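Slide 14.
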Amino acid sequence: MRARNLALTATAVAVAAAGVTLPLAGTAAAEGATVRKDDFNGDGHRDLVIGTPGANSVTVTYGSAAGVGERRSTTVTQDTAGVPGVTEKGDEFGESVTSGDVNNDGYADLVVGAPGEKTPGKSGGTVTIVWGGKDGFTKGGTALTAPAGSERRFGEAAVFVDFDGGDAANLAVISGNSWWYYPDSGLPQDGRAIGLETDFLPEGVRLDNMTAGHFTSRDGYTFVLTGERADGGAYTAYMKGGAGDLGYWSGVLAEGDDPSASRDPLAVGDVDGDGYDDLVTGNPRAAKGGAVSVRYGADTKFGAPVTYTQDSAGVPGSDEPGDAFGGSVAAGDVTGDGRADVAVGAPGETVGAPSVRGAGGVVVLRSGARGLGNGRAVHQDSPGVPGVGETGDAFGSSVRLKDVTKDGRADLAVGAGGEDIGSGSAARRDAGAVWVLRGSAGGVTASHAASFNGSDVGVRLPAGAGGVGRAFGETLR
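Slide 15: predicted structure.
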């Protein structure tokens, strides 16, 4: 794969590498105002979070009317002043990221999972809360270790929502084999975590991801968990209810070879605009080249899955082995019509002319009265998109849809975990990079597209640590 350079901003590199935040224009949220759960500096714009578990780092690029980029960013590691822990090989700090105003100060806080962390005398994995603020992440943070000795890979995923009726959000965390929540917002401490009253998880399950949404009620939250059964089959389950019956109201949505089952990719959005959240799952092993499914939310229950492949009407491309369509998914209102559209990563896609295997692509499917369709394919050889599609780039290994410009339309962020950075003997193989494309009334547009990599923000992967699953942009939030 030919190495190439993305734009480098020396000032941003020096500042981020030193663990110092750039000057920001944010002001504290007014008392009583609603805090955006991903506005870390309080300027009213949503921010894009980029996790790089191979480098044990999380980068926040701050939203603005001009979008996001490397010039307005902060990179956080366990070596950042005030952040608990020490950066060590294999910690996987940044494997999962969520956010919310945990300490109720009017700024969103980072919640970072490091499932590979080893803490003496504790089971594996930690979750670190890094406090946001007007000047970025200068207030340090606090770390949570696994609540029980039986845990493995605590911090695989986390969500921060109010599901117990306490009028304050709660932190819920999964390990590889369990689910936990902290009953109070503020400063959760070890020992206060509560597990399932009814353990519905099958023996030997390995959990990989979790989300929560108003799927079966416009008020209460339902959790969805994904992973693998002991026999290697996919496992996608749900759980609803509150304190006192956690785990009792649960069930399997799909498992095994069901094309609508997911081992990892999950997204939440109101695709049909009816006020209920809808669940989007990806399964890159389904059909020949992968599939994506939508379960529409409704009162008390999920709807039946509607599954799409690249042979479905309105979906660009064709269903071919190795495409990994559904390897990543995201939901957000790209066009501003009040309904969530769906972005689907196909990191194994062959693109370009002549054809380039594994260059990867993303399909953005528009929501409509008859479901998803009117799709548009985007890749590095699309007009206006920075870069060149090369073998193994895996463009689309991660995707995220969120409105970082505050214009009412979600913008598309894309990770390419196989992207090479630099040239010649100095090239960083499979270091990864991120692209951000604007939303518009006509869909995703390459106008004002941005592209940057870890070197631009002070993230440097150790030798041999890159590639899909470990590279810059592996986690987009």
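Speaker note: The first strand starts at residue 48 and ends at 52.
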